[in-house]
Design brief:
Number of strands: 20
Radius of gyration: 24 Å
Distance between the termini: 40 Å
Largest sheet: 8 strands, mixed
Strand content: 15-25%
Mean pLDDT: 94
CATH architecture of the largest domain: 3-Layer(bba) Sandwich
Helix content: 25-40%
Number of helices: 16
Shape: globular
CATH topology of the largest domain: FAD/NAD(P)-binding domain
CATH class of the largest domain: Alpha Beta
């Protein structure tokens, strides 16, 4: 099977309004298409900027790119048959395997016939008299639909820092989020990598193995726990096939949507000796479950310090050069308060003779020169390649790129000028019939994404089915519901250590000029699921449902 393959959509040239248009063909868009087309019988089309399915994973092909959720939970669970027929090969799947999986699902459900690939949406405008969303693509095509559903992902708009001189750099430069599909050859090259978040932590060991020399420019030191990635045994694969229902139950009932429960014990309830033994076992097991041994890691600063000190000690023990070790362990935030990376040989890579570490908090980057990077001190690093592992304009960036205009021509960018506001992460007041899958105000980036996505898609599908049963064609949340939910999002966040990191991308701090607002819902996926279910069961309070205008073209 080719890695990226797609049948052309059958409705090219058809300008009749659709019932719904979905933007994005990743996990969200594929499942939303299946639900609306195959369960509700709606006339639906997906518009996808890439040349194949995959969403974020269509673009994320940088060295070392792989998922940090375990493979048996990083997949759809809506179909026991599809779940059981796919066999993952590794504990943490790489980008190519994830794309193969999504292509398999697309083929299995015959989704590609209603996906228009290589089609980037450049504008979305609500036409009030017609009761339609009108979309424009980069090719000048104009399409319309009763409902617009954004499935553009939370981490899909690359954040490239505006460093003076980049345009004059004579070497090559790349962003990890838009990696060339043909790959990049580093052999014999002097490479500089800017950024040490989860993406950078994955890339460093792989680049270091090939490059002649790698210089890592670190602004913010980061925790990381070994992934302990390995091929899956035949016994484990058989267990996964036989336990679909239990895996689905656990992932849907946990705080973060992962296939393990958080232990109901406090860090303070165990002795220092017991704590060390628990953490040693967790370190050897590896993965995100490391943080699930205690319930108060993100709630209690004194509890958090004990885990943070354990990880710092591990870093100092792995890195042989005392100066590098001190720099890598000089972490200025609580453990897990930023996205907690897992790695395969990140800290050990700094023991290589061809890997250097530069502290750009102490000596910031002043500019990029034609031949490399110059620091404020005047120190220069000669480079052939620059890799930006600088993350994304998270959560809001992908939506802003669509140039959405709602009632009265109101721009979403203006509505969110002081920070994003939604009701349940699903709708925005003033933008009728627009649904945002895993939007700001939902658990999204704090959750194992497929679990969050399935809940969102199913809720939207049930909502549209409810509208149809009542003969209604328009739904819009209210400003009051949106304000109340925004207050709840901030209240819950403030019960945790998450907002206490001023440079976190959870608050948009990685993008200059972006409002500092804590964006995801930190109350947990299980609680969020229950709240959304209660809203639906009570007849959708917080939403106004009305008869819409029937489009003349219909």
């Amino acid at each position: 099977m080719p890695l990226d393959h797609a049948a052309p959509p059958q409705n090219i040239g058809d300008t009749k309004p659709r019932d719904a248009i979905i933007i994005g063909a990743g996990f969200s868009g594929l499942y939303q298409l299946h639900c609306l087309r195959d369960r509700l019988g709606m006339r639906v089309e997906v518009l996808e900027a890439g040349g194949g399915v995959g969403g974020t994973w269509y673009w994320n092909r940088y060295p070392g790119a792989r998922c940090d959720s375990e493979s048996h939970s990083y997949c759809y669970t809506f179909s026991a048959e599809i779940f059981r027929e796919w066999e993952w090969t590794e504990r943490y799947p790489g980008h190519a395997e994830i794309r193969r999986y999504l292509n398999h699902v697309s083929d299995r459900l015959d989704l590609a016939r209603d996906i228009r690939f290589n089609t980037r949406v450049t504008a979305c405008r609500w036409d009030e008299p017609a009761g339609l969303w009108r979309l424009t693509t980069q090719h000048g095509e104009e399409l319309s639909a009763r409902f617009l559903i954004t499935a553009v992902g939370c981490l899909s708009t690359a954040n490239i820092p505006k460093i003076p001189g980049l345009e004059a750099f004579r070497g090559d430069w790349y962003h990890t989020g838009t990696w060339p599909h043909e790959g990049v050859a580093f052999a014999g090259k002097r490479v500089g990598q800017i950024g040490t978040g989860s993406t950078g932590i994955q890339a460093v060991p792989v680049i270091a193995e090939e490059a002649a020399h790698l210089t890592v420019f670190q602004r913010t030191a980061n925790y990381s726990v070994p992934a302990r990635n390995q091929p899956l045994t035949s016994e484990f694969k058989a267990w996964v096939r036989d336990n679909w229902a239990e895996i689905r139950r656990v992932t849907q009932s946990t705080v973060n949507g992962h296939p393990f429960m958080i232990e109901d014990r406090s860090v303070h309830a165990v002795s220092d000796e017991e704590l060390h033994a628990i953490l040693e076992r967790a370190w050897e097991r590896g993965g995100l479950q490391f943080r699930a041994n205690f319930r108060d890691v993100l709630l209690d600063e004194t509890a958090n310090v004990k885990l943070a000190d354990f990880v710092r000690a591990k870093i100092r023990g792995m890195v042989q050069d005392p100066a590098k070790a001190a720099m890598l362990a000089d972490i200025d935030h609580p453990y897990g308060a930023k996205r907690p990376p897992i790695d395969s040989g990140y800290f050990e890579a700094f023991n290589r003779d061809n890997v250097a570490l530069v502290d750009v908090r102490a000596d910031p980057i002043e500019c990029i020169t034609p031949t490399g990077i110059r620091l404020r001190s005047g120190a220069e690093h000669a480079l052939d390649v620059i890799v930006f592992a600088t993350g994304f304009d998270a959560m809001t960036g992908p939506l802003m790129a669509l140039n959405i205009e709602g009632e009265g021509g109101q721009r979403l960018a203006d509505a969110w000028a002081a920070g994003p506001q939604t009701y349940l992460g699903l709708q925005v007041a003033g933008f009728p019939n627009l649904f945002t899958v895993t939007g700001p105000g939902s658990p999204s980036v704090l959750c194992n994404m497929p679990v969050c996505i399935e809940q969102h898609v199913e809720w939207i599908t049930d909502c549209l089915g409810h509208l149809r049963a009542l003969g209604l064609e328009r739904i819009e949340t209210t400003a009051e519901a949106m304000a109340d939910w925004g207050a709840e999002v901030q209240r819950v966040a403030n019960l945790t250590l998450l907002p206490k990191v001023p440079h976190s991308w959870y608050l948009g701090a990685n993008v200059p000029g972006k409002p500092r607002v804590f964006m995801p819902y930190a109350g947990g996926m299980a609680r969020y699921r229950q709240h959304c279910a209660e809203v639906a069961a009570k007849g959708y309070p917080g939403f106004i449902m009305e008869h819409g205008q029937r489009a003349a073209a219909e």
